[in-house]
Design brief:
Distance between the termini: 40 Å
Strand order of the largest sheet: 2-3-8-7-4-9
Structural class: mainly beta
Order of helices and strands: EEHEEEEEEEH
Shape: globular
Number of strands: 9
Radius of gyration: 17 Å
Strand content: 25-35%
Largest sheet: 6 strands, antiparallel, barrel
Amino acid sequence: MSQNSVKHDPAGVREGEIRSLRDPARESGDAHVVFIGRIRSPWRERAECPKNMRQAREKTTGGCHLEIDEAWRPGLAGLATGDYLHILYWMHQARRDIVLQKPRHRDTPAGVFSLRSPVRPNPVAMAVVRITSIDTAAGIIGIDATDALDQTPLVDLKPYLPSIDHLSDR
């Protein structure tokens, strides 16, 4: 499904929510993002997906992996089983036109940038995963869990570096 074919149900706006005057899914973009592969998961429908990585780790019984397109496989050099990895992915089925949201778990609406909701102008998500296996030749990276739908496009991978990524005041 292309990002421009996402169907928006105007009736799908909850009480207290505000739609943006612009819907980025309907505009031509200024960035040229190249997907490097896809996420494979047991989650086929949005209703099945865990809401976050904590829930994903509780629900996942294996089978989650990243499939890296052939052109990008040399970039996997240096990754190893047991490493932690930031994955950035494009939530291709998410709405992009709600700027003030009313999540079911909150009493009051909140701005999109104060939430981790998939509904955002650019539906980029990020998660930290642990590599459980890696086959660089085949471009397959086994991961401990994911909260993404099966076939979700991958934007980028970045190593988790405790010396940089860990917040010592937490």
